[in-house]
Amino acid sequence: MPAPLEYGFATRAIRAGHRRTPEGEHSEPLFLTSSFVFRTAAEAAARFAGEEPGNIYSRFTNPTVRAFEERLAALEGGECCVATASGMAAILAVCLGLLKSGDRILAARSLFGTTTVLFDKYLRRFGIETRYVPLSDLAAWDSALAEDQGRSIRLLFCETPSNPLTEMVDLQALAEIAHRFGALLVVDNCLCTPALQRPLEFGADIVIHSATKYLDGQGRCLGGAVIGDRRLVGEEVYGVLRTAGPSLSPFNAWVLLKGLETLELRMLAQSQTAQSLAQWLSHQPGIRRVYYPGLSAHPQHDLVGTQQRTGGAIVSFEVVGGRTSAWRVIDSTQMLSITANLGDVKTTITHPATTTHARLTPEQRAEAGISEGLIRLAVGLEDLKDIQADLERGLGPLERG
Ligand SMILES: *Cc1c(COP(=O)(O)O)cnc(C)c1O
């Protein structure tokens, strides 16, 4: 039986979405099948006509994918969830489902890099323009919408906290601004996951996930999801999925379904290590600034505990001495993984200026606050002391700036 919404978060993460088959299996079954069989020609006709519920083809529906969708919808508190092949497929499906030529997107300046490329290079070709504002500046969102007067801005799009600088926006205030101008608020909830933050509760209309990150949590497969109401997500976004085809594979859905079972434990444990690490980094020599929402010096620290449950698991810091020092710290590590991925139980270390943000011009990087000395950590589940020791190898020789 799918767990009703009255169950607690941990219970929903473990029980929601699985309808036991007559075989009596305890673990969620994996339906590796591309199509489904009908008993008669009349039954096939009725299913195709939409007169009778049931599976037809796995691009449309698949029981394992549906179990993942129902579980994630129960965790985000949404009416409906559709799973996608990746996080980018989720963002594309939302745009194709809800926008048309002449519409515009109003987005936060600090977005996942590929999202910006999707908006500026591909959607623009089809007559959909994107304008950018600073994430936490509510007045800037408001005045961009006031200028437009409901003519063309249909979607507001943001991630909070941002990556890598962990800037945040007040979601409730932003949702009110969006709705005052008849626009929808779309939140990419990748960095917090529903274990730490549920944007729909603050008035957001649609939540997007790259399930590749924390929902899997163990770096195994790609996936994505869109959560919202039955009309926007269940009809418009789902329609794109079933027609254009970036559907989630049943195997990946099964991996992600099992990932959700430990999501809350991982997010809380990884946040706790990140919090300790951020505090420790603040006292290390050679570090100019630490970016972490859980530090009282963070400009939007007030949102921790109200909007998002913890500071999350992303910690960034700027070392003195620019790129040379940053690369030395990264190259001195022996355990941390030098990779651009995040959301894994393995801690990863990245130099944003030359990897994730390398496509930006130096001026754009300066404007975004991505300095040459910036290092991003996506904190995993290893022992705190081992992560500290690995960082100390490179930090020790740096002079306090
Ligand atoms: C990784 C990521 C995406 C894209 O997800 P994929 O699964 O890699 O397609 C989108 N948004 C954010 C915030 C991400 O970190």
What would you say about this model in short?
With 401 residues, the chain is an alpha/beta fold. It has helices at residues 9-15, 41-48, 63-76, 87-98, 113-125, 138-148, 171-180, 193-196, 230-244, 250-261, 263-282, 322-332, 362-368, 384-395; strands at residues 80-84, 104-108, 129-133, 153-159, 184-188, 206-210, 224-228, 287-291, 314-319, 337-338, 348-350, 374-378.
Descriptive overview:
The protein is an alpha/beta fold and 401 residues long. The chain has 2 domains: 9-30 and 62-261, Type I PLP-dependent aspartate aminotransferase-like (Major domain) (Aspartate Aminotransferase, domain 2, 3-Layer(aba) Sandwich), CATH 3.40.640.10; 263-400, Aspartate Aminotransferase, domain 1 (Alpha-Beta Complex). It has 14 helices and 12 strands. It has helices spanning 9-15, 41-48, 63-76, 87-98, 113-125, 138-148, 171-180, 193-196, 230-244, 250-261, 263-282, 322-332, 362-368, 384-395, and strands at 80-84, 104-108, 129-133, 153-159, 184-188, 206-210, 224-228, 287-291, 314-319, 337-338, 348-350, 374-378. Strands 1-7-6-5-4-2-3 form a 7-stranded mixed beta sheet, sandwiched between helices. It has a 5-stranded mixed beta sheet with strand order 8-9-12-11-10. The N and C termini lie far apart (59 Å). The relative contact order is 0.12. The structure holds pyridoxal-5'-phosphate. Pyridoxal-5'-phosphate binds next to helix 4.
Could you say which overall geometry the principal axes of the C-alpha atoms support? globular
Q: How many strands, which pairing sense, and closed or not: the largest β-sheet?
A: 7 strands, mixed
Q: So, the CATH homologous superfamily of the largest domain?
A: Type I PLP-dependent aspartate aminotransferase-like (Major domain)
Bound molecules: pyridoxal-5'-phosphate
Q: How many domains comprise the coordinates? A: 2
Instruction: Give the neighbour order of strands across the main sheet.
Output: 1-7-6-5-4-2-3
CATH topology of the largest domain: Aspartate Aminotransferase, domain 2
Termini gap: 59 Å
Helix content: 25-40%
* Rg: 22 Å
Structural class: alpha/beta
> What low-confidence regions span 5 or more consecutive residues with pLDDT below 50?
none
- Specify the number of helices: 14
Order of helices and strands: HHHEHEHEHEHEHEEHHHEEHEEHEH
CATH architecture of the largest domain: 3-Layer(aba) Sandwich
Q: Compute the average pLDDT.
A: 95
Fraction in beta strands = 5-15%
